[in-house]
Write a structure and sequence with these properties.
Layout (H helix, E strand, L loop, with lengths): L4 E5 L4 H12 L3 E6 L11 E4 L9 H4 L4 E4 L12 H21 L4 E5 L25 H15 L4 E6 L1 E3 L5 H11 L12 E2 L1 E3 H13 L6 E5 L5 E2 H11 L11 H10 L3 H8 L7 H5 L8 H10 L5
Parallel strand pairs: 1-2, 1-4, 2-3, 4-5, 5-6, 6-10, 7-9
Antiparallel strand pairs: 8-11
Helix pairs in contact: 1-6, 3-4, 5-7, 7-11, 8-9
Length: about 300
């Protein structure tokens, strides 16, 4: 599509902050949709304050908008978040925003979904968007349901399903892994063999620009992942290489590591970082998306601090 006015939700979050900067750098005028009145984020051409779960009148907010990038929503938690909360934040808010966009004749709706709309914590074999979705928790089910809602509304839409996203300001498991890599101690991960696909926030931003620029309707979900799936030891090695250090990994039986994590209440963390979850981005590649750097290069840049905050 040729328009250059983008409405962006979630602009104050980890991914949204990077998207705002990237879209602005690409020449788009970005209008941020905020839940609360705050200082205008750097790079935004304007802002509209409102509650996405109750978009009573979005006509003014979406006037003249060519596309929406919807990155707001309830993020994944390890456990305990009520399914109703995911339904309200991730399904109903997305549906209502898309309905408002259709009424305002917005050209394209880009939804930031998740690989968890397609699979669980780990999966056997490489995942593609052609596989039948099989989410295993409330978060994944909410993202898949939001995609289904978009398909029912008369708007050109595309849902990106990114794997674990990393970059400056990242939180959660990747932040914990970065902290571990920065310690001076040997780490007992050398024997772990599970491979995980990753994507940097910069490569994800480039994928969003790719679908924004695509001419012709999309109306589909696309997996977003860098091509070089890494084992946990390789992630640590890349992070420490960015610091100019050796990997410093020692072997330890995976069963013993898993037991220690379960005893300390970190069993799900261990499964997330040690199990297989390899994804293929053939659909995005067919649209012309090419990652600017590999996961190993991106992790090294992250630990060096070369990425923008």
């Amino acid at each position: 599509m040729s328009g250059n006015v983008i409405a962006l939700t979630g602009a104050t979050g980890f991914i949204g902050r990077h998207l705002l900067r990237s879209l602005s750098d690409q020449g788009y005028r970005v209008r941020v949709l905020l839940r609360r009145p705050v200082e205008l984020p750097p790079g935004a051409s304007g802002a509209v304050v409102g509650d996405l779960s109750r978009p009573m009148n979005m006509a003014a907010a979406l006037s003249g908008v060519d596309a929406i990038v919807h990155s707001a929503g309830l993020a994944h938690a390890m456990s305990g978040t009520p399914e109703d909360d995911y339904r309200s934040s991730n399904i109903e808010a997305t549906r209502r925003l898309a309905e408002a966009a259709a009424k305002a004749r917005v050209g394209r709706f880009v939804f930031l979904s998740s690989i968890r709309a397609q699979t669980g914590i780990s999966a056997a074999g490489a995942i593609t968007e052609n596989d039948r979705p099989n989410p295993t928790d409330a978060y994944g089910r909410s993202k898949l349901a939001a995609e289904a809602a978009l398909a029912e509304i008369g708007i050109d839409w595309v849902a990106l399903r990114p794997v674990l996203v990393y970059g400056a300001g990242v939180k959660g498991n990747m932040a914990a892994l970065l902290r571990l890599a920065r310690t001076p101690y040997p780490l007992p991960f050398a024997s772990l063999t599970g491979r995980r696909s990753l994507i940097s926030v910069e490569n994800l931003s480039a994928a969003i620009v790719t679908v924004l620029r695509h001419r012709g309707p999309l109306g589909r979900s696309l997996v977003a992942a860098e091509p070089d799936a890494l084992r946990l030891p390789e992630m640590i090695a890349a992070l420490r290489a960015g610091l100019g250090r050796r990997a410093g990994l020692v072997p330890c039986p995976p069963s013993l590591l898993g037991l220690a994590c379960r005893v300390t209440g970190r069993g799900e963390v261990f499964e997330r970082l040690s199990g297989d979850l390899v994804a293929c981005s053939d659909g995005l590649s067919a649209l012309g998306w090419t990652p600017a750097q590999t996961s190993s290069e991106g992790l090294a840049a992250l630990s060096r601090g070369d990425t923008a905050a």
